[in-house]
Specification:
single chain; alpha+beta; L-fuculose-1-phosphate Aldolase; 7-stranded mixed β-sheet; 9 helices; about 40% helix
């Protein structure tokens, strides 16, 4: 195992612990993957059967683009996870890391006919960036791959209708920060809807300027998108339990 793979294993295991800390886990289900360097299109995924809090750098499973386990593992991999992630990894060279969750707020918005509204601080920052994929049942049928790829297109935020949330990133940190933004947008919408009160509209002119305004906010941030945020959460996890670092 080279140093690049060791580092990605450690970061991905940390990401699973962060998701668990934020209550984005669901029993042993859902998945986060990261592509390994090289031309083999291998990627890492969680062992099917372990809770996110049990994932470590050493027990992550290495698979090929067809979903075959290529190194010994004591665990299988989630069939639905393999279909979703292999489809996107295989079609999007820039999608090095992919996360998928079934959060309460995410599923609430995914079940709403109009999807994510552009009327809160986080959702307006995602204006024009969110794709949708129609529900076709549990994602285990190979025929859904093409539809999933077409639904996502070149976007990095995907709401799977009646299902959940998915984000992509060139790094684990970028995927995490995108998931945080999408999840927060959904949380706020779900909470606002519970009040039953009228919603203050956000003007289209503001929505269209959101990327420009965000670029100004992030202009002095060192590193790539999400690096500082992910590092802060990783430090918090380290203070609680750093056993995920076992390589």
């Amino acid at each position: 195992m080279n140093s690049a793979e060791k580092e990605l294993r450690t970061q991905l295991a940390a990401c699973y612990r962060i998701f668990a800390f934020l209550d984005w886990d669901e029993l042993i289900f859902n998945h986060i993957t990261v592509r390994l360097p090289g031309d083999d299109h291998h990627f890492l995924i969680n062992p099917y059967g372990l809770h996110y809090s049990e994932v470590t750098a050493s027990n992550l499973v290495k698979v090929d683009i067809e979903g075959n386990i290529i190194e010994h593992s004591d665990y299988p991999v989630n069939p639905a996870g393999m279909l979703i992630h292999s489809a996107i990894h295989g079609s999007r060279d820039d999608a090095h890391c992919i996360g998928h969750i079934h959060s309460d707020a995410g599923m609430t918005v995914a079940c709403q006919q109009d999807g994510l509204r552009i009327d809160n601080f986080y959702s307006v920052l995602l204006y024009g960036q969110v794709a949708y994929h129609d529900f076709q049942g549990i994602t285990v049928m190979p025929g859904e791959k093409e539809a999933l790829i077409n639904s996502l297109g070149d976007k990095n935020f995907l709401i799977l209708r009646s299902h959940g949330l998915l984000t992509c990133g060139q790094t684990i940190a970028e995927m995490f920060f995108r998931m945080f933004s999408l999840q927060r947008a959904c949380e706020i919408q779900a909470q606002v809807d519970m009040t039953g009160k009228p919603v203050v509209p956000v003007g289209l002119d503001i929505a269209e300027r959101s990327l420009e305004l965000l670029a100004l906010q992030m202009a002095n941030s060192p590193g790539g998108a999400g690096d500082m945020e992910f590092a802060a959460m990783q430090r918090r996890i380290d203070r609680i339990d750093d056993s995920y670092r076992d390589v």
